[in-house]
Amino acid sequence: MDMRFDLAQKAQDDTALVMAGAPSGKGCGGQYCDRCEVRDQAICADLDEQQRGALNRIGRRVSLQAGQTVMWEGDSSTLVANVIEGTLKLSTSTGDGREQIVGVVYASDFIGRPFGARTPHSVTALTDARLCLYPRGAFDGFAREHPVLEHRLLQRTLDDLDRTRAWMLLLGRKNAREKVATLLLDMHNRLPADRGGVIELPLSRQQIADVLGLTIETVSRQIGDLKRMGLIALAGRRGVRIVDADRLEAMAEGE
Amino acid sequence: MDMRFDLAQKAQDDTALVMAGAPSGKGCGGQYCDRCEVRDQAICADLDEQQRGALNRIGRRVSLQAGQTVMWEGDSSTLVANVIEGTLKLSTSTGDGREQIVGVVYASDFIGRPFGARTPHSVTALTDARLCLYPRGAFDGFAREHPVLEHRLLQRTLDDLDRTRAWMLLLGRKNAREKVATLLLDMHNRLPADRGGVIELPLSRQQIADVLGLTIETVSRQIGDLKRMGLIALAGRRGVRIVDADRLEAMAEGE
DNA sequence: CTTATGCATTGACCTCTGTCAAAGCGGGCG
DNA sequence: CGCCCGCTTTGACAGAGGTCAATGCATAAG
């Protein structure tokens, strides 16, 4: 059976569980916000203590396991959230099941579609994750009353749009080697490395393929080539160390 | 010589002309806004008369000829604008000159990068066009003081992001036939048709290729195939009529 | 109306990436 | 510690789309 369909089934059940199981009225809570890991990076950063308290009251914390899907492409938009911890993918699919990952989000990022009727893409946890979840209607109302929040959301959305458009160049005009090199550099810049300089990829080979618009076989071959050329070193299935960043950057640009 | 480079050269000169030649202090002007064709669709729609007057004072109207470039990828972001009339493309390129069109904008759309240091893509007129142009700094300041404007800008940016992500699915996962069919339907939905049902494409074959991540030859072959199959009819270089929308939609989805 | 220019089409060929199938191997479980 | 499952790698092959080159044909200038 297709792994992706498998995950989807599982997640559908789990999501229902999360929704039902969360204690109502228990928001992020002022006490949570005070020690929130992403308080200074997330969109709530510019709110004062009182405003944050008010936002708290409409939200709640939720834990996700790797593989769980929080929102489904095409569903009516009922939830938005801040990512407290973990990595998630945003994805869309064609009618016949081809998938494209349209974004990868990290701690402090915002997910969901405020001010819109439909969720344009699915959101699925790649690692275990924690969210600060808000009902969309209440969030929209709060945002409209707090321009500092909307401003921060606007900045974030503009940044997302820039990054997304840059990725279109990769999808439309780069070859497989350039695509893989670009992704490895991108992850290298965004993920923490251990002492040995090894980063743990949050994506399987199939997911890398889904981000780059390739097949798993092509991704595997390209990574193998880069290793054989001595530009990268592999450590297990998910570990990667950039050995020669300059040459890898040259590859990424097609030089 | 490469057509695209040629255009670029030409536009660089012309842009300078426009900037220097515009009478300073002559804004869109209250009298212009009153008869503005896009007043109710552009981001200024929710401003009251007085606020619109204030925004006017920092902007001015500018005319562009087809082929002129208004903003350059990577330049510092100094301008933003509303499109009054015409069609423009947003594009990025790799170091070695491969181009990807990352967006096509029409009347009432907003262009430029507010709240950011750099322009992430070039903006070039595909047809003759008119803009309502604002210096970025002044626009940013005005926007921060007028949450209704920022809200409208946020909605527009969220919509852009949705559309851009949907396009990523096309770039990463659709084949040439599906890409071309999708584009023709998209244009059919957004452009006015004459009595005969013929739409005038604002894009040359090369530009269609740059939107779809294909070569001009592949685009030409696919359009030829669709014509031979009786799904579309051609009228000159730019004219297209959708003959069988249902079958074309099936093509677009790969069915 | 005619001509010239440049965009568009068509053809031949080749390469890159996808497809299908089999083997390898990392990591969790017993 | 070893086994087994599922992800990953590797191989052989096919086909979609790119490349290079020549021809066709709108369109606008004369």
Automatic annotation (TrEMBL), chains A, B:
Protein name: Crp/Fnr family transcriptional regulator
Molecular functions (GO terms): DNA binding; DNA-binding transcription factor activity
Pfam families, A to Z: cNMP_binding, HTH_Crp_2
Domain Cyclic nucleotide-binding: 43-112
This protein's UniProt keywords: DNA-binding, Transcription, Transcription regulation
One GO cellular component term: cytosol
Gene3D superfamilies in UniProt: Jelly Rolls, Winged helix-like DNA-binding domain superfamily/Winged helix DNA-binding domain
Segments forming domain HTH crp-type: 174-246
InterPro entries for this protein: cNMP-bd_dom, cNMP-bd_dom_sf, Env_Response_Regulators, HTH_CRP, RmlC-like_jellyroll, Tscrpt_reg_HTH_Crp-type_CS, WH-like_DNA-bd_sf, WH_DNA-bd_sf
Lineage of the species this protein comes from: Bacteria, Pseudomonadati, Pseudomonadota, Alphaproteobacteria, Sphingomonadales
Source organism per UniProt: Sphingobium chungbukense
